[in-house]
């Protein structure tokens, strides 16, 4: 029973990070700072003028962020049979430093912490602590292309502070942005991940792709449609999974430092060990703040 609970907490933490965007603007799921967009830096429509002005401003390389959210899940245990509905709350905080170390090169160092609490299944409660460091290179001859490498350390702690997972991962990948107009565009990319985990049965390597469509609906409201297929390899368990995630997210920005977000996601996992097959729907939302300096 304890092993099953640990597996569910580990998979829920990984699924949440990949499927649901953070409620703190300006950072990704790992607390890594994202580039400021025209929609967050100004309320007018002079996109070209905004970009020129932004290039003259002092770069803000530190982001301190926090948020709180609540979600419904159709399959809290991520099981093949006997699915149980539940609701869970998440509180998170992160700090990220992203110094520019060259004209087309940027580094990133981040720390994050999250608290997960379930309504009907408190035995799955856990805390997520992490550290990450990476580098992004934008080749000058390849506009819109980003090449990146990143190391992440994650520790999951269950009830009473017991350790559920200690995970090290190295990620490399490439991403390309295609502008479709002044208010929308598509990002597509590929990633590869090598992991080292304790317990060993949770260790996994990954090969995946991603595609994201972003649409700026108004000056303060935007939406993202995201799809990510990936192969997960569990060497210690002798297992290979094909995992798919689809999500639809709406984000409303009150100011440059405060926002609301609503999210819907669907996850499907198919394994050569059919006991690990599952389908799950999640929906919810939250509020977030951040400070850049």
Secondary-structure topology with pairs:
Layout: H1 2-19, H2 38-41, H3 47-56, E1 62-73, E2 86-97, E3 100-102, E4 105-118, E5 126-137, E6 145-157, E7 163-179, E8 184-198, E9 205-216, E10 221-234, E11 239-253, E12 258-271, E13 278-292
Antiparallel strand pairs: 1-2, 1-13, 2-4, 3-4, 4-5, 5-6, 6-7, 7-8, 8-9, 9-10, 10-11, 11-12, 12-13
Write up this protein.
The structure is a single chain. This protein is mostly beta strands. The chain is 11% helix and 57% strand. It is built from 3 helices and 13 strands. It has helices at 2-19, 38-41, 47-56; strands at 62-73, 86-97, 100-102, 105-118, 126-137, 145-157, 163-179, 184-198, 205-216, 221-234, 239-253, 258-271, 278-292. The protein has a 12-stranded antiparallel barrel. Strand 12 (258-271) and strand 13 form a beta hairpin. The longest helix is centred in the N-terminal third of the chain and has 18 residues, at 2-19. The radius of gyration is 19 Å and the shape is globular. Residues 23-58 have low confidence and may be disordered.
């Amino acid at each position: 029973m304890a092993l099953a609970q640990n597996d569910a907490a580990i998979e829920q933490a990984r699924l949440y990070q990949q499927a649901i965007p953070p409620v703190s603007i300006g950072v990704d799921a790992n607390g890594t700072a994202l580039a400021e967009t025209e929609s967050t830096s100004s309320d007018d429509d002079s996109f070209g003028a905004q970009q020129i002005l932004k290039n003259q401003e002092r770069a803000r390389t530190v982001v301190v962020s926090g948020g709180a959210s609540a979600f419904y899940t159709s399959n809290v245990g991520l099981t093949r049979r006997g699915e149980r509905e539940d609701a869970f709350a998440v509180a998170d905080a992160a700090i990220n430093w992203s110094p520019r170390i060259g004209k087309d090169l940027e580094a990133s160092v981040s720390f994050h912490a999250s608290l997960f609490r379930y309504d009907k299944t408190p035995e799955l409660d856990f805390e997520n602590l992490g550290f990450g460091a990476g580098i992004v290179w934008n080749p000058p001859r390849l506009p819109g292309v980003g090449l990146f490498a990143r190391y992440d350390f994650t520790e999951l702690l269950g009830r009473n502070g017991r350790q559920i997972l200690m995970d090290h991962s190295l990620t490399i990948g490439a991403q390309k942005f295609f502008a479709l107009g002044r208010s929308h565009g598509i990002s597509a990319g590929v990633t590869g991940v090598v992991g080292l985990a304790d317990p060993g049965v949770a260790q996994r390597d990954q090969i995946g792709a991603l595609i994201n469509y972003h649409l700026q609906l108004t000056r303060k409201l935007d939406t993202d449609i995201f799809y990510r297929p990936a192969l997960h390899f569990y060497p210690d368990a002798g297992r290979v999974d094909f995992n798919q995630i689809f999500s639809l997210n709406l984000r409303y920005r009150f100011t440059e430092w405060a926002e609301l977000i609503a999210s819907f996601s669907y996850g499907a996992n198919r394994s050569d060990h059919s006991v690990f097959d599952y389908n799950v729907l999640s929906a919810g939302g939250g509020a977030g703040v951040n400070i850049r300096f």
